[in-house]
Amino acid sequence: MAKDSFSKEEKQQIEQAIKTAELKTSGEIQVHLENHCKEDVMDRAAHIFKVLKMHKTAERNGVLFYMAIKDHKFAILGDVGINQKVPDHFWDDIKEQMLLHFKKDEITKGLSKGIAMAGEQLSAHFPYQKDDDNELSDEISFGKN
């Protein structure tokens, strides 16, 4: 299972990156990890986005970091509220930085870097509010495969 690919400390590091990023933005960040992705990675990410009910945030500002570990596939998917405001290259810039770490087998570091970058960038369009509700869990979700 994908859950077994990460130590307790690595899981905590990724979840802490989410918590830290969300202190800068009202955006909601989630990470979903699986071992395999048998379809187009963006199609799978869109399916998971829906399963996790990420499209239900008030400002439509959810971000999913999806990864199929054994198949070496990953995607970043932002909701419509974000994509209406950010430049075209927004997600590609983050993916490129993550790939630098993935190529060195630094998966946790790459995910944490991508999450931090997303939080920084989202803060410009969706600043953190004092009364901000954490609408989505900060815990990593894992697929069954």
UniProtKB/TrEMBL annotation:
**TPM domain ranges (all copies):** 4-120
Recorded hits in Pfam families, A to Z, give: TPM_phosphatase
Q: Which InterPro entries match?
A: TPM_dom (IPR007621)
User: What protein name does the entry list?
Assistant: TPM domain-containing protein
Source organism per entry reads: Marivirga aurantiaca
